[in-house]
């Protein structure tokens, strides 16, 4: 086969009308071979071509006469000296780190490991068997696609409502999705799904990992799998598991069609991405890609024992953000998903690990500097999970401007408040108003806080109010996995109940949590299914459950709760006072007679410093002044909204609130009462100075009439 030298950039496999250019970054290899595969199952090696051209650590070659759908892999030669951090093994076919498509999932076999399984020297031994029969293959794609008039929704941050979902779990049992499309990108683009998302009122879907990932061998051998997908191996490849159309590049087109369809409905697409580690695990993991291409470059190795990996992630390894090739890989991947796949933003799993220049988390690490100045990535939504498992990894509030963060302190405070734990009201009030203690010192605004009560990792909202203890028995680890969620509250009965009083209390608590979430400043994130009472049967770590435990059961939806949530989201979207772009000042603005916010005790008197600092009260009144919103709209016009009085009672008994003095308002209409069977009220009015009884564990919203 005649070949040409090709070019070193772009990396990966790039097709033109005559052939394909292949480029692979590898600093320490002594030889690289490009392998082309064919045959009925794609496992037949039809060519093994030496790559002889090397430019600035990039091996490259041009192969004419091949095109989209061609399967390929690499064999990389070099020393196999694990004690020195070198793990080259020429017998192993490897995935291209820049593969735009991967044809299949892994079929586990001992040949996928660079060492001999069971050998007395463990990973210091070398396995000389060929792995081509069981190894997935990279695929050359045709990148063309008719985007037509696709336009990014460009939803302003303060207008954003995030909906976290799993591509498969969300549609696998959806009655409106054709059976052959359930669990796929195409299924998520079905009209029935789009209509549901729009009617719910969310503005962005945050997709749990869709990069090609590895299902851990120990799970597969126990009849389980890595359902969540936080085990990436292909940072450019949409996972073939979620493709209804095929695995030879069709999954790329299907993903693009999904994005285009969601955009047409006004919905943004945010990807949950896992750049902190890969699916190759620790020194006893398989050799699939990065380990065999350049182990010492791609991974953080223990300085004085490079046989082992630094593990800030709890997953066996950590990507080496100090290596230029690794940093380029991540930046190229991010830009690819924005420019070629049209996604609107990213949520970075264990983002603190990306900031580790040496050992400590560096708030201004190279990764953040590069993103900050990048003309593409600096313009999309960037969300950090602001912690990892290493020392000093909990960094809530410490990420740079342009970033928003999963606010774990918001979650914990809201849960503690509604389960009646003694805590100072100042903590709850701070979280309710955007967590200024975390973000204001860094000159960030309330949009830095991604507020959530539940997420994929932990209890669903229904299970949060139904279980005190996790029930992860199906995971096969004697219920020892997952965290003991000590911020749940089961209303006195563990699990399912046939007591109407218990069911009513649980329903009210769900409404309380949802109301708190959508009445708070910051960006709300809703876990898919929480709006209609989805349960996982008490499993708070369903990462390995690709079955009915994790899939949304649409036939058991609580339609009353669903309608409540729809109205709640619509209420938030209708009133700018709940989604301010700047911090409350507590003083009059624009000549308003009262400040932009007021805090009250149940007796109608304003909270004093002593009230904030002493005792553990569980009730609070909050006045939001709709006439004192400091941020103008996009046209420069002053924003004016109605004013609202929010009453929170987490006490186990009713509390009578006296409506505040006349300068705060003369009369009020009832908008919301989470204790009522029909929570959204018909506007009954109440005069200032009178008492309004708020039921035990309830939220009430009053609107100022005059």
Give a quick rundown of the structure.
By secondary structure, this protein is α/β, with parallel strands linked by helices. 20% of the residues lie in helices and 20% in strands.
Task: Walk me through what this model shows.
- By secondary structure, the protein is α/β, with parallel strands linked by helices.
- It folds into 3 domains: 12-139, Sandwich (Immunoglobulin-like), CATH 2.60.40; 161-574, Glycosidases (TIM Barrel, Alpha-Beta Barrel); 584-704, Golgi alpha-mannosidase II (Immunoglobulin-like, Sandwich).
- Helix content is 20%, strand content 20%.
- The protein has 15 helices and 31 strands.
- The strands form 8 sheets. Strands 12-13-16-19-20-21-22-23 form an 8-stranded parallel beta barrel. A 6-stranded antiparallel β-sheet has the order 24-25-26-31-28-29, with helices on one face. A 5-stranded antiparallel β-sheet has the order 4-3-7-11-10, with no helix packed on it.
- β17 and β18 (305-309) form a beta hairpin.
- It is elongated and about 90 Å long.
């Amino acid at each position: 086969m005649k070949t040409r030298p090709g070019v070193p950039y772009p990396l990966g496999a790039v097709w033109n009308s005559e052939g394909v250019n292949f480029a692979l970054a590898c600093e320490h290899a002594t030889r690289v071979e490009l392998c082309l595969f064919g045959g009925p199952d794609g496992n037949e090696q039809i060519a093994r071509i030496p790559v002889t051209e090397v430019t600035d650590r990039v091996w490259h070659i041009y192969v004419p006469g091949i095109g989209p759908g061609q399967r390929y892999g690499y064999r990389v030669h070099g020393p196999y000296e694990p004690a020195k951090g070198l793990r080259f093994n020429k017998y192993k076919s490897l995935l291209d780190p820049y593969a735009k498509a991967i044809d299949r999932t892994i079929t586990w076999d001992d040949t996928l490991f660079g060492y001999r399984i069971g050998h007395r020297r463990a990973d210091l031994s070398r396995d000389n068997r060929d792995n081509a029969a069981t190894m997935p293959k990279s695929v050359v794609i045709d990148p063309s696609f008719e985007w037509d008039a696709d336009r990014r929704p460009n939803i302003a941050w303060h207008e954003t409502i995030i909906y976290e979902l799993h591509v498969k779990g969300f549609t696998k049992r959806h009655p409106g999705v054709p059976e052959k499309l359930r669990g796929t990108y195409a299924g998520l683009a079905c009209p029935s799904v789009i209509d549901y998302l729009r009617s719910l009122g969310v503005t962005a879907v945050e997709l749990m990992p869709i990069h090609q990932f590895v299902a851990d061998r120990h799970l597969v051998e126990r009849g389980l799998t890595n359902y969540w997908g936080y085990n990436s191996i292909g940072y450019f490849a949409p996972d073939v598991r979620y493709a209804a159309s095929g695995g030879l590049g069709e999954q790329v087109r299907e993903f693009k069609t999904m994005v285009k369809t969601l955009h047409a409905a006004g919905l943004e697409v945010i990807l949950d991405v896992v750049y902190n580690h890969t699916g190759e695990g620790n020194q006893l993991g398989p050799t699939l890609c990065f380990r065999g291409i350049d182990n010492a470059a791609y991974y953080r190795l223990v300085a004085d024992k490079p046989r082992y990996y630094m593990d800030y992630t709890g997953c066996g390894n950590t990507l080496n953000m100090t290596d230029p090739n690794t940093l380029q890989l991540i930046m190229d991947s991010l830009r690819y998903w924005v420019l070629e796949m049209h996604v609107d933003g990213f949520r970075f799993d264990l983002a603190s690990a990306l900031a580790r220049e040496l050992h400590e988390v560096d708030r201004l690490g190279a990764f953040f500097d590069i993103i900050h100045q990048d003309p593409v990535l600096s313009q999309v939504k960037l969300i950090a999970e602001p912690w990892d498992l290493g020392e000093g990894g909990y960094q809530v509030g410490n990420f740079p401007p342009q970033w928003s963060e999963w606010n774990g302190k918001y979650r914990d405070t809201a849960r503690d408040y509604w389960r009646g734990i003694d805590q100072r009201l100042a903590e709850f009030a701070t979280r309710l108003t955007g967590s200024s203690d975390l973000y204001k010192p860094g000159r960030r605004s309330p949009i830095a806080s991604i507020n959530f009560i539940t997420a994929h990792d932990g209890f669903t909202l229904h299970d949060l109010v139904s279980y005190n203890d996790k029930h992860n028995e199906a995971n096969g680890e004697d219920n020892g996995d997952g965290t003991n969620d000590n911020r749940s509250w089961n209303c006195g009965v563990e699990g399912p109940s046939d007591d109407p009083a218990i069911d009513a209390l649980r329903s009210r608590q769900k409404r309380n949590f949802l109301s708190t979430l959508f009445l708070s400043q910051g960006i709300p994130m809703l876990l898919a299914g929480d709006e209609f009472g989805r349960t996982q049967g008490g499993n708070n770590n369903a990462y390995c459950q690709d079955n009915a435990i994790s899939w949304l059961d649409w036939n058991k939806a609580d339609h009353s709760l669903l309608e409540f949530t729809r109205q709640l989201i619509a209420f938030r979207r209708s009133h700018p006072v709940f989604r301010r772009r700047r911090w409350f000042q507590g003083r009059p603005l624009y000549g308003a007679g009262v400040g932009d916010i007021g805090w009250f005790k149940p007796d109608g008197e304003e909270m004093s410093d002593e009230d904030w600092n002493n005792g553990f009260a569980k009730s609070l009144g909050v006045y939001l002044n709709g006439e004192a919103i400091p941020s103008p709209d996009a046209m420069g016009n002053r924003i004016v909204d109605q004013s609202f009085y929010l009453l929170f009672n987490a006490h186990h008994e009713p509390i009578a609130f006296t409506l505040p003095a006349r300068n705060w308002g003369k009369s009020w209409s009832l908008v919301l009462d989470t204790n009522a069977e029909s929570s959204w009220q018909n506007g009954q009015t109440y005069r200032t100075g009178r008492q309004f009884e708020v039921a035990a564990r309830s939220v009430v919203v009053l609107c100022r009439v005059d």
